Amino acid sequence: MVAAERFIGVAERRARLALRHRLAGQAAAATPEEVADALVALHGTDPATVYLAVGARLADPSHTVRETGRALYEDRSLVRMHGMRHTVFVFPTALTAVVHASTGVAVAARERAALLKHMAAAGAPDAAWLKEVEESTLAALARRGQATAAELARDEPRLKERFVYGAGKSYEGVHTVSTRLLKVLGVEGKVVRGRPLGSWTSSQFRWAVAPAHPELDAAGAQAELLGRWLAACGPATEADLRWWTGWRVSEVRRALSAIGARPVSLDEGTGYVTQDDTGPAPEPDEPWAALLPGLDPTAMGWQGRDWYLAPELRPALFDRSGNVGPTVWWNGRVIGGWAQRADGEIVWRLLDEEGVGRETHTAIEAAAERLTGWLGPTRITPRFRTPLEKQLATG
Question: Which Pfam families does the record cross-reference, listed alphabetically (predicted)?
Answer without folding.
Answer: AlkZ-like
